[in-house]
Design a protein that fits this description.
Strand order of the largest sheet of chain B: 1-3-2
Helix content of chain B: 25-40%
Oligomer: heterodimer
Largest sheet of chain A: none
Shape of chain A: globular
Order of helices and strands of chain A: HHHHHHHHHEHHHHHHHH
Distance between the termini of chain A: 27 Å
Number of helices of chain A: 17
Order of helices and strands of chain B: HEEEEH
Strand content of chain B: 15-25%
Structural class of chain A: mainly alpha
Number of strands of chain A: 1
Chain lengths: 372, 152
């Protein structure tokens, strides 16, 4: 099967041919040409379109947004998140181990472990966050303060798992926004539009300024309705009033859409060393460089997972959510590690294509040597 | 002599625990519920179609009755989702959850029933496990063969 996703295969060449044609036509228009050729304007255009689409969907069709977002971008965004946080950047071994353990906890949860699984997730997330704090080059007193704070925060989360899920669900989206803004600022790329726009829309939505824009009738696909409605219901506190529920649903759906955009489009844009987007052949080669032999199975997983999530109904969604819940803690740990190294930057690796492939020996030997 | 075609020397006791783990997981009665579900608590699994409130978007608690006389150990026994405030000396308030807002569902009613849902979940977990096993097996098969140590 691997020949199908070989960078030199015919269909990748055909895709690149189509891309060349589209770009040739699009770049005849000066504004589009400027956007394509310059990283700054391109990043701003991407941020504006991400904000616009996310706000529109969250206001007018939040349930559809939750359904299609998980189906089309669910598995790819988890892989892209792992790539951005663990492969292209550095995470401690303990954090990676906690993420792996999270997959097993998710599988156990599907077997009916219930709240115990949630508490296990809270423990794993706390462990991974603490591991990043300890591994950071921050001052000792600051690290001790952070670990104490984490332990203190874990206690209510263990005691009230419902509260923990509610907080995680909103912080997950916000954390991705913060991660992108920090990374963009360090690379001296513009993120003000995204940060300002997201904060303004979140505040406006939370305060009720957008209530009149919200749809009164919410549509959901029948075959996944139970799962989608339960997800929407958990975005607000139980017994919330109608207005509060719709505001919480807007905040949740908006954050979800933005975090898909960040991991799948904006972070790769930041991490790219070249000024212009690469053709599919190069992108596929980069993916192989990052994930080695896992690249092909991961691509099939994206395709198969998308089809299952689109047509598999609630069961497929439940399985996806349980098995990928670990990435909430992984991304949180990555954000905390990034924030703590802000004033004490870690030495950057010489190449952006870093560590995991040679460490895990996932790639072919020559690729691993090249990555090292 | 008839020889079974099979994995041969690769089926070692060390790898057998993975197969057993997969069987244990698949044979276990599954509930196919991810309590976290990205992010949701998944109380409702009314995808079986029998639930009349399967399209309910928001629930509210409403007061069903207020009993003036105090009931000791008061379980008023209201059916369904009704809850009872267990008190002595003050009126007993019986509440019930009702659907306050419905979503509009579209598309086919091809939701999986409970049994199918469990099977689907088991199949998905099985697929995930076999995916992991395949990767482990491939990685192991790439490692250089080390001959077993022989007793002198």
């Amino acid at each position: 099967m691997s020949h199908v996703v070989n960078p030199d295969s015919a269909w990748v060449e055909a895709l690149d041919g189509g891309r060349r044609t589209v770009l040739r036509i699009a770049c005849r228009l000066p504004p589009l040409r400027a956007v394509f050729l310059s990283p700054g304007p391109r990043l701003l255009a991407l941020q504006a379109s991400a904000l616009g689409f996310a706000a529109l969907l969250a206001l007018r069709a939040p349930l559809i947004s939750l359904w299609l977002g998980a189906a089309l971008f669910g598995v790819p965004h988890v892989i892209a998140g792992i790539r951005a946080t663990a492969v292209r950047r550095e995470l401690s071994t303990l954090t990676l181990g906690a993420a792996l353990a999270g997959v097993f906890v998710g599988a156990a949860q599907l077997c009916g472990l219930g709240d115990t699984a949630l508490r296990a997730f809270v423990a794993l997330f706390t462990l991974s966050l603490a591991a990043e704090v300890v591994a950071s080059p921050a001052a000792r007193a600051r690290r001790i303060a952070w670990v104490s704070l984490l332990v203190l925060a874990a206690w209510p989360a263990l005691a009230w798992p419902t509260l923990a899920v509610l907080v995680f669900s909103h912080l997950h989206g916000l954390g991705a926004i913060a991660y992108f803004v920090v990374c963009a600022r360090r690379r001296r790329l513009p993120a003000w539009l995204f940060a300002g726009g997201a904060v303004a829309l979140l505040l406006a939505g939370g305060a009720g300024a957008l209530d009149s824009w919200m749809a009164s009738t919410l549509f959901a696909p029948r075959h996944s309705a139970a799962s989608i409605l339960a997800e929407a219901g958990a975005s607000a506190w139980p017994n919330a009033t109608g207005a509060m529920f719709h505001r919480a649903l807007f905040l949740y759906a908006f954050g979800q859409s933005l975090h898909f955009a960040i991991w799948l489009r904006l972070m790769p844009e930041l991490d790219r060393a070249t000024r212009v987007p690469k053709p599919f052949r190069r992108q596929l080669a980069d993916l192989r460089l990052d994930f080695g032999r896992l690249a092909t199975p991961l691509l099939w997983l994206c395709a198969g997972g998308g089809i299952l999530l689109l047509f598999g109904g609630g069961a497929a969604r439940e399985v996806y959510f349980a098995l990928t819940y670990f990435h909430v803690g992984l991304e949180g740990a990555a954000l905390l590690g990034l924030a703590l190294t802000q004033k004490h930057p870690r030495p950057e690796p010489e190449s952006q294509q870093t560590s995991l492939a040679p460490v895990l020996a996932l790639g072919r030997p020559e690729r691993a040597q090249e990555a090292a | 002599m008839f020889k079974l075609p099979g994995p041969g020397p690769r089926l070692r006791p060390r790898g057998l625990w993975r197969v057993l783990l997969a069987y244990a997981l698949l044979c276990q009665p599954m509930r196919a519920q991810a309590n976290t579900s990205h992010h949701h608590l998944s109380g409702a699994d009314g995808a079986d179609g029998a639930d009349t409130d399967a399209d309910c978007l928001r629930w509210e608690e409403v007061v069903v009755s207020v009993t003036a006389t105090p009931a000791e150990g008061g379980q008023a026994g209201a059916a369904g989702a009704a809850g009872t405030a267990e008190v002595t000396g003050i009126p007993v308030v019986t509440t019930r959850k009702v659907c306050a807002e419905h979503a509009t569902l579209f598309g086919c009613d091809c939701a999986l029933g409970r049994q199918q849902k469990e099977r689907g979940s088991a199949a998905a977990i099985g697929a995930a496990l076999s995916f992991g096993l395949t990767i482990c097996r491939r990685r192991r098969s790439r490692q250089p063969h080390i001959p077993p140590r022989r007793k002198p």
